[in-house]
């Protein structure tokens, strides 16, 4: 079971800005399944915000069409993603 206690909720909804939204749409066409977009979407989020919030994980999951737990697992497995403001 995942320990989501390390996630920080900002209380504000998350959404890609126009530049990253366009990049997401460009990249999604290159991947065989939408779930393959988890890592690139996490990277776009971190590029935009500097870190990955609980709201961002939910947004990515909804945008890709998967469970937030899968996005959370990827974000916590790789050390390159920051779950706290840097």
Secondary-structure element series:
HHHH
Low-confidence stretches: none
How much is the radius of gyration in Å?
Answer: 12 Å
Structural class: mainly alpha
Termini separation comes to 26 Å
Let me know the average pLDDT: 92
Number of helices: 4
Can you give the helix content as a percent range? Answer: 40-55%
What is the 3D shape? Answer: globular
Kindly state the number of beta strands. 0
Largest sheet: none
How much of the sequence is in beta strands?
A: under 5%
What does it look like?
- The chain has 86 residues and is mostly helical.
- The chain contains four helices and no strands.
- The chain starts with 17 loop residues before the first helix and ends in a 9-residue tail after the last helix.
- The mean pLDDT is 92.
